[in-house]
Amino acid sequence: MSISSPKVSQASRKPPVLTNPVRYPQSAPAPVRTKRAFVLLLLTLLLPGSAQIVAGNRKLGRLALRVTFGVWLVVVLALAISQLNRGLLFSVFTNPFSSLLLIAVLVLLALGWAYMFLNTLRLIRPALLAPGMRGTVSVVLVLLMVLTSGSVGYSAYLINTGRNAINSIFSAGPDMAPVDGRYNFLVMGGDAGADRVGRRPDSIIVVSVDASSGQAVTISIPRNLQNAQFTADSPMRSVYPNGYNCGDNCIINFLYTEVTEKYANLYPGRSDPGAAAMMDAAGGTLGLKIQGYLLIDMSGFSRLIDALGGVKINAGGWVPISGASLDDSGYSHAPPEGWIAPGEQTLNGQQALWYARSRQWVLEYARSERQQCIQQALLKQMDPATVLSKFESILNAGTKVMESDIPAAQLGSFVDLALKSKKHPLKRLTIGPPDFDINFSTFPDFNVIHARVQELIAGNSPAPTTGPEGAAPAPAAPDASTAAPAAPAPAPAAPAPGPQVTQEYLQQLAEQGDDAMLESLLANNGSCTAG
Q1: Is the pLDDT of residue 91 over 90?
Q2: pTM of the prediction?
Q3: Which segment of the chain is annotated as a signal peptide (predicted)?
């Protein structure tokens, strides 16, 4: 006897899978379809591929999820490397080859993420949504695509901009090795204007950085230093065996142009023979091996400051923004076109340029002190947040004002050193006042310079030396055991009231040609600290 199964009506044979509103939204009510649309968009935002796993092509979803988890793994590894070897991570972005690979990967990720959103829109099936929700879902999808694919694509664009800037500014040479545990760089600032013969570096500063700790010192060489020495292996010794010693026409400021015009053949294969000769002169003068240089065109320096949003300093005295030059010496000017006041200041590019270059009514060494201050302030402001927020404008400015022989492939490790340097106080030395006598740059004692440089690098802060070899010492304190008791000193007379030092008063003195009073009032304008 056979038992037959009960007949099932056609209505009850509906496949169970069609009741799943996530995969088959046509069977769901309108509110559920709307909720489903936003859930799928959220899944694609947070976990690309998951929307396809639950509602579409599972094979595509699994591939996208593998890529997503792979990206997360790379991000976790990058965070770990940033704690263990930050220089290696920076090198990925600064090395020409790894940065190109990174750009290609980011472009593919941006396109892939955009495709996943478009595929998600197909899964949503906008035709099934209520008329009022179709536009809303489409707008949200476009916004999410801009947020995700747009951001990834823009990151690729910024890295490519940085890569082009690095290739434009820095060299493709071999890596530099530290010398005695330090990297020594020559930083020069100069003009090549229409009124000047060649480029003359008016700012000459050596930056010496400990290759391990990042502890940095800066040594300013005055532009009027005479008899600059050359390193033992310098080809310039064949021209000047006893140093750059032809008198006033051989101040170190003139060396760059002279070598560029007359002795470029002594530096075959060097793209900038003048800079190479300046490195030899700075190294021989200070007793250091200079491994690389950075040359900043001061005519475009203001653009870099503006790109950073200004530079913050605490100025010690009034600094004139000089008027037009009245002769070829560069010292005689029309009355100032403006003044930079003492106190806390945020200087724009043009103001910072004048603050670093002004030498009217003061000695050359006041300008050197201000240049070192601007350099220290820039280093202080170059934090990652500032650089990232103004990345493109900084790079665009940099390609117009800088050139260097520092290897591009090694730039990442130097960026890491720069960040380490911010943890230490920046020590400074000037081969002139206040660290040496005013005549020292005319009759320098290079043994004394070498000793002071080594003391500075070793972390000591020696007192200024006496006589022609250095600056005058501070007055000695009296011997308490032999000094006779002093009679009570009479109360000092109240100083006679004088005019308040204001911009208007200074401008009036300038227009009257009272140079002596201006020299007295501006004597402290080299004093400056980073803001």
Answers
A1: no
A2: 0.73
A3: none
